[in-house]
Each structure stands twice: as structure tokens, then as C-alpha cells.
Amino acid sequence: MSDLILPEQETDDVRQRRDAYASRPKQLARWLLISRDQVKAKYQAAKVELNRVNVRVADVSKSRDNWKAKG
């Protein structure tokens, strides 16, 4: 973290470069919320898929065990 520049240590050049690329806080908040929602949706879908696969494995295992018991 030696590259960290505190506000009181900023030079005019650093301040100008930072301000030239600064987005509006409202826009940044919007992007972050959209990104958060996309990540949440992705992992919720993955969780649903994992549960579906686990149920399928349990059903197949039970069916196989029943088949073995009959044979």
C-alpha cells in the first residue's frame, strides 16, 4: 500500500488527472447496483441449478439402490 496517496499529498497534476476521469457519484452508484444485481442473479441461478442436480443425484441413487435390491 505504499502507492496510496493521501488527499493532502496530492499534487496538482494528480488532482487534474483524477478529476478528468471522475464519473458522477450517482452514475457510479447506479453501475455498482446494476453490477451487484447481476452477480446476485448469477449466483442465485447457480444455487438453483446445484439444488436441482443434487435432487436428481438423490433420485438416481435411490432408483439404483431399489434396482439392486430387486436383482
| Binned strand content | under 5%
Question: Helix count?
Answer: 2
**Helix percent band:** over 70%
The total count of strands amounts to 0
Structural Rg: 27 Å
Structural class: mainly alpha
Distance between the ends: 67 Å
Unreliable runs: none
Order of helices and strands: HH
Query: Major beta sheet, specifics?
Result: none
- Oligomerization: single chain
- Average pLDDT: 88
Task: Note the overall shape.
Answer: rod-shaped
Structural overview:
The protein is mainly alpha-helical. It contains two helices and no strands. It has helices at about 10-20, 25-70. The longest helix has about 45 residues, at about 25-70. The model has no long low-confidence stretch (mean pLDDT about 90).
Summarize the entry for a quick read.
By secondary structure, the chain is mostly helical. It is built from 2 helices and no strands. It has a domain at 24-70.
Name its key features.
single chain; mainly alpha; 2 helices; rod-shaped
Topology readout:
Layout: H1 12-20, H2 25-70
